[in-house]
Amino acid sequence: MSSRKLTLDLHPVFNRGGAIDQALREAMDEAEARKVKQLEIITGKGSGALRKRVLRFLDSKEMRGRYHRIDKDPGNHGRVFVHFRFQRGQ
């Protein structure tokens, strides 16, 4: 099992809705394929709209079962952490 962390910076696609969803899906797929323990999503501080969109995406029925938990960084409102837990042999 890997202890690596994967990072997704959404700054380049912050204003393109479809590209945001695609980037999030691809990052989730990669995190699962590489069996990383943590996916760091950088939304930036801004107005908070992108962060809310990311949290809604992660809370969707399609995504909820794919991760263990989500943490919002209390010291940096521009980051969200998605934690994964994999069973042995998975």
Tell me how many strands there are.
4
Poorly predicted ranges: none
Helix content: 25-40%
The count of domains is: 1
CATH architecture: 2-Layer Sandwich
Highest-level CATH class: Alpha Beta
Q: What string gives the helices and strands in order?
A: EHEHHEE
Query: Could you give a short account of the major beta sheet?
Result: 4 strands, mixed
As a percent range, the share of strand residues is 15-25%
Separation of termini? 10 Å
CATH topology: Ribosomal Protein S8, Chain: A, domain 1
How is the largest sheet built, in terms of strand order?
1-2-4-3
Q: How many DSSP H or I helices?
A: 3
Kindly state the mean pLDDT as a whole number? 89
Cα gyration radius (Å): 13 Å
Shape type = globular
Structural classification: alpha+beta
Would you spell out the secondary-structure blueprint of this structure?
Blueprint: E1 5-9, H1 17-34, E2 38-42, H2 49-58, H3 61-64, E3 69-72, E4 79-83
Parallel strand pairs: 1-2
Antiparallel strand pairs: 2-4, 3-4
Structure report:
- The protein has a single domain (5-83), classed as Ribosomal Protein S8, Chain: A, domain 1 (2-Layer Sandwich), CATH 3.30.1370.
- The protein contains three helices and four strands.
- The chain has a four-stranded mixed β-sheet with strand order 1-2-4-3, covered by helices on one side.
- The model has no long low-confidence stretch (mean pLDDT 89).
- The chain starts with a strand and ends in a 7-residue tail after the last strand.
- The protein has helices at 17-34, 49-58, 61-64; strands spanning 5-9, 38-42, 69-72, 79-83.
